[in-house]
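URGENT: need a sanity check before tomorrow's submission.

F., can you look over the histidine kinase record below? I want to be sure the sequence and structure line up before it goes out.
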Amino acid sequence: MLSKKLASRITTWVMIILFVSVIALVSGADWITKNFYQDHLSNEVETRISSHAHLLEKNADDQIIEYIEEVEQGKNSILLILDKELNLSYVSERISSSQLHDFQSWIHRILDQSEAISEPFLDHVETEMRFHIPHVWALIPVYTDEEITGYVFLDQDTGELNHARIKLLYLLLIMGAATVFVGYLFTNYLTRRISKPLNHISEMTQNIAAGDLDIELNVQGKDEVGRLADSIQSMTKQLKEYRDSRRHFISHISHDLRTPITYIKGYSAVMKETPPDEQGEWKRNLTVIYEEATRMEHLVSDLFLLTKLEEGKIKLDKEPILVSDWLTSLYNSRALMFDQKSIHHQLAIPDAVKGLAVWMDSYRMEQAMINLIENAIRHTEKNGAIELSITMQKEKVIFSVADTGSGIAEKDIPHIWERFYKADSSRNRQQGGTGLGLAIVKEIVEAHGGSVSVKSKPGEGTTFILQLPHSP
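Structure tokens as predicted:
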């Protein structure tokens, strides 16, 4: 499952990061505290042994020794006073012979390595205990009349400081463990909360891929997951519209092709049985076959044109066109069609537009306007009226085709630009259209960078409005 994989992967990585961070924190704290305590203790030992040596240089009587004993009391240290031959003169506490041997061996080694020691010499001696702060050993000569008369040795134990350091490390480890535990719970909770809607989305997309496009994704929120769900829901809606449009397209194209094919096949069969000498019957049958073949040709041609427009494969040959002359010529070419249905018609071109040139492909725009004009004629009753007009508004040229036909229902207006959309009976393919005209108009106008809209009320008529940019 997606939720398990995603949650486990995120949790694992977060735990690794937290664990490494805690280890780095504890190790860093151990290094810092160890060096801090060690440096602090070294400075203290250096100060103390120097003070002892200065006192002994002035006077080495019992009173000075007692004072030094009081200073070293409670400091977990061992103080040795030796003569210049390194014979033991004083020891602050009982020590074993092996300890004394170790001290003397170290002193001999230091003196052999250095010709003369005038300042305190410090060394950090590791103990057998792991992770323990090293002991601080210090040696300083005692001078009398600028001659060495003895040595002072100090062994400073670091047990108390190390104990405090270990407590601090334990505290950090406990806090680190608590952090890792809380981090695990919190991360596990968050990853499951995030992955749950993702898992739901994954299941829904699998159903979508299987063809179920009626799915509703119930994912709330405005975060990335919510936006992903909205995008998938939008995609699903578009896929559903595409599926429905494809079904409608196949249904309509099958119907529109089947009807003329049936006519052609039927009348051809009749002609096979009709004697050649019956010229009238043959001519009537051939007329029907020709008309149906022409209808099929128009349908295929319109469908091919629309497909190429939608794919952007048609190149527009734009040039400056005097729109007043262009529209007047187009209007006059359809005058006979107006008169055949006794439709009152007029062309409105204001003086401000005369002489105005617009960059456009005159042939393609002529296709669009002819579709609108013939559509208006087709759906306008006898003695109705159609008006063509052109106006200028800011940087746009506006063409309009208004009729007094039966109009379009409000619920159908958003869909009239779709292929083969069948609205009410007053505007369908049965009256001679292919059902692709308005879709072609929209594609041609938008290819020119313009827009097309419609205003209509049932029983009052329809007005199609084309807007084109004035300049290229």
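My own read: Residues 224-310 form a domain with the Helix Hairpins fold (CATH 1.10.287.130). The chain has a mean pLDDT of 80. If you see anything odd, call me.
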